[in-house]
Amino acid sequence: MSMHRKKCGGCNCGKNNQYKSKHPLRKSVDKLKNPLTMMQSFAMSLASRGLTNKKADIPTKQLRTLSCFGDESIGGSLPPCEGLGKSETKGRFYCTECGCGDREGTWLNSTNESYSKLDYPKLHCPKKMPGFSNYIMSETKDNSRKYIIENYDAAQLVKITVSSPDMPEDKKPII
Ligand code: SF4
């Protein structure tokens, strides 16, 4: 009725569904004209999140793990990122594209008890992949790893096993 009526900006009053469409893992995205895929929606939500926790939550870490390591650990065929490097330390991997080198603080994986790079709540990826704070959606529908991950089956994603260690005391002051 009023010319000045605006859509709700996301206060959960129920006056529009724009806000709902941005929420991760909501089925309502399918009903929108140009819906984001479930995984795109989830990844965008993660990327825009404030820095309030001391560790990434499990779904975030699963998505980051998929971006870096692919899904061969759960029987899939998505290969690891081209930027994933084998550490000189057996069983450890690091990102060869971020320039941080190969040392304990930069390892992307760890033992169950150890805090790794993928556990940081805010973390940038040189390729801006899903799960990272600087994620940007792929622009083309080519068969890139990013596009495949953006259309990944959420039921498969939850099968990726990740740990959730607490941040060590010495790292807390810098976060
Ligand atoms: S470029 Fe990104 S996805 Fe690839 S290994 Fe580095 S952090 Fe992981």
Topology readout:
Blueprint: H1 18-22, H2 38-47, H3 58-69, E1 84-86, E2 93-95, H4 145-150, H5 154-157
Antiparallel strand pairs: 1-2
The structure holds iron/sulfur cluster (SF4).
Describe this structure in words.
With 175 residues, the chain is mainly α. The chain has one domain. The chain is built from 5 helices and 2 strands; from the N terminus they run H-H-H-E-E-H-H. The protein is globular, with a radius of gyration of 18 Å. The termini are far apart. The relative contact order is 0.17. Mean pLDDT is 80; it is low at 1-33. The structure holds iron/sulfur cluster. The site of iron/sulfur cluster has 12 residues, from helix 3.
Which keywords apply here?
single chain; 175 residues; mainly alpha; two-stranded antiparallel sheet; 2 strands; disordered N terminus; binds iron/sulfur cluster
Strand order of the largest sheet: 1-2
> What is the terminal separation in angstroms?
48 Å
Largest sheet data: 2 strands, antiparallel
How many separate domains? 1
Give every kind of bound small molecule, once each.
iron/sulfur cluster
Uncertain residue segments: 1-33
Q: From the alpha carbons, calculate the radius of gyration and give it in angstroms.
A: 18 Å
Number of strands: 2
Structural category is: mainly alpha
The tally of helices reads 5
Characterize the overall form: globular
The helix/strand order is: HHHEEHH
Helix content percent band: 10-25%
Mean pLDDT: 80
Portion in strands: under 5%
